[in-house]
Structures are given as C-alpha cells and as structure tokens.
Amino acid sequence: MTLNTAVTGTDTKTACGSYTWIDGNTYNASNNSAIFNIVGGAATGCDSLVTLDLTINNVSDITTSVSGIVISSNNTAASYQWLNCDNNYIPIVGETNQNFTATANGNYAVKLTENGCVDTSFCVSIATVSLMENDFGDALVVSPNPTEGNFSVNLGEKYYALKIDITDLNGKIIQTKEFDNSQVLNLNIQEPAGVYFVTITSAELRAVIRLIKK
C-alpha cells in the first residue's frame, strides 16, 4: 500500500497596493506566512499546501509642494507625468520633470510611477500666472482670468489707499479706481476683447496683472 502525502509549494506574487489571494483575503502589506490548503489539489489526489510569498509595492509619496507658479513632486524616486485636471486629466506634453511651471491658471496634478506602481497626486490650483509684478504676497488671486468683463482681485488681506489703473496694450489708461480698507476688489472691463494690464498700488506695494478679456 502506498501512502501519498500532501504536496507543498510557494505562490510568489508581486502587486501594487493590495492583493486578494486564493484564500479570499486581501493583503495590503507584504506577506510570506499565509498558508492555504487546496483539498485534493495535488496530481496524486492529495491536498496541496500553498504558502504565500507576496511583495506589495506602493508609490511612496504622492504629495506636492507649491512655490508661486511652480509645483514640485515631493517624491524623488518616481518618474513623472504632469496632468491638466481641468481637461480630463490629459497629460501635458513634455512635462515629465519633478517640477512643473504653470503657463496658465488652472488645476494640475502629477502621475507618479514607482516600483511598477502608478498613482496620482491631488490637484493643485494655480491662479497667479497672470502676475507680472507682485509685492502683495502669494495670497493675491485674480479670478476669472480670462474674463468676459467682470473679475475680482483678492489681495489676501485688507489694504488702505488702494489705486487701480487699467491700461490697454498701448499703455492708454482706460479706467482708474480707488479703494480704501479693502481686500476684495470687484472690477469690470467694458472695452472690446483683448489684453489689458491692471496695476494695483498701495503705499510702497505694487502689482501688475496681465488680464485677458474674451
């Protein structure tokens, strides 16, 4: 009489993020101790004892940092593809470096590839591309730009004795306004579509905004 014993083996797997094994469990970390018995799974008709040897890989860091109009991935071990969140996350041609300099206001993210895994950062809003000069700090936001006429400038905090000059491309002043103790400046351009410059001054502070009217 011949007695057959259970057959043993190792199931080696590599996955990104998580892996659901034959035991029905989902593993979110590497594991080399899980064992599953496949009843009658061996060629001899005996049970087959399988040990899992699982390596879980991840993208180690999907965070970003912002300085002005430059967005930087904090991950130094990945490859990069910057995306336009406002256009269905379409890849931005040629933008595959760790740092991305926005050329237009909008929302941007980076797709990261590391250890065979792919993940995407949260979208970052850039609203200061139009600033040609700015002494008021990073809190200054112009919205919307381009505009159909109405737009606002949020200085981030209140300032006194504010003067606003709006000029056309030829330097001709088409509008002058003054505000006092104000943070949000609601403005309007009634002139035809084109490029205009909005100059804001308060004491020694000055900002120049390139504004597009559609």
**Gross morphology:** rod-shaped
Radius of gyration: 29 Å
Number of strands: 21
What letter string, H or E per element, gives the SSE order? EEEEEEEEEEEEEEEEEEEEE
Proper CATH architecture of the largest domain: Sandwich
Identify the CATH class of the largest domain: Mainly Beta
What number of domains? 3
Proportion of residues in extended strands = over 45%
Give the oligomer, counting copies of the same chain as homo and different chains as hetero: single chain
Question: End-to-end span in angstroms?
Answer: 91 Å
Poorly predicted regions are none
- Biggest sheet character: 5 strands, antiparallel
Q: Percentage of helical residues?
A: under 10%
CATH fold call of the largest domain? Immunoglobulin-like
Précis, in short:
Pfam families: Por_Secre_tail (PF18962). The chain contains no helices and 21 strands. By secondary structure, it is an all-beta fold.
What would you note in describing this structure?
This protein is mainly beta and 214 residues long. The chain folds into 3 domains: 7-57, no CATH class; 64-126, no CATH class; 132-213, Immunoglobulin-like. The chain is 0% helix and 55% strand. It contains no helices and 21 strands. It has strands spanning 7-16, 19-20, 26-27, 35-38, 48-57, 64-67, 70-73, 79-84, 90-91, 99-101, 106-114, 117-120, 124-126, 131-134, 141-143, 150-159, 162-167, 173-179, 182-188, 194-202, 205-213. Strands 8, 9, 11, 12 and 13 form a 5-stranded antiparallel sheet that branches. Strand 11 (106-114) and strand 12 (117-120) form a beta hairpin. This is Secretion system C-terminal sorting domain-containing protein. It comes from Fluviicola taffensis (strain DSM 16823 / NCIMB 13979 / RW262).
